[in-house]
């Protein structure tokens, strides 16, 4: 049994794996991967903090992976094709695999916001970004990015 005594002390990942020019604007996102440190492989849990002005991702949806968000502190705006909704502490939201209503979290407040991000760890996945010329494929755990025409980003 592994224990993380203070998850906020887990070194965060910053930046993003998105290709240029879609990789900009993620400096204020801090992701702390908890499940890897605990030896779990079937699902992932990130303790994610968004500084003021930061966003979680580009608006997207997953073909094979479920996602679950639980708000811990601060205030975020959930952006979907249906509009915007404010999320506050103790609120939860889920995104089922295959639901084409893409989602994104944005911190429009003046304080940091922190949430748990829990999701499936499929080895193969397709991710659609409806607002930009980007789609992602994950095969055997490795990501590749393409234009909507199928042309790969280098």
Describe this protein's structure.
- The protein has a domain at 28-38 and 48-61 and 75-85 and 98-109.
- It is built from 1 helix and 12 strands.
- A hairpin with a 2-residue loop joins strand 11 and strand 12.
- With 154 residues, the chain is mainly β.
- 3% of the residues lie in helices and 41% in strands.
- The protein has one helix at residues 35-38, and strands at 29-33, 43-50, 61-62, 67-73, 76-80, 83-87, 92-95, 104-106, 113-120, 125-129, 134-139, 142-146.
List keywords for this structure.
five-stranded antiparallel sheet, 1 helix, single chain, 154 residues
Assign an overall shape.
Answer: globular
- Look at the helices and sheets and give the structural class: mainly beta
Number of helices: 1
**Based on DSSP secondary structure assignment, what is the total number of beta strands?**
12
Described by strand count, sense and barrel closure, the largest sheet is: 5 strands, antiparallel
The strand line-up of the biggest sheet is 1-2-9-4-7
Query: What's the multimeric state?
Result: single chain
What is the straight-line distance between the termini? 41 Å
Percent helix, as a range, is: under 10%
Low-confidence stretches: none
Overall average residue pLDDT? 96
> Per DSSP, what share of the residues sits in E-state strands of 2 or more residues?
35-45%
Task: Give the helices and strands as they follow along the chain.
Answer: EHEEEEEEEEEEE
Gyration radius, in Å: 15 Å
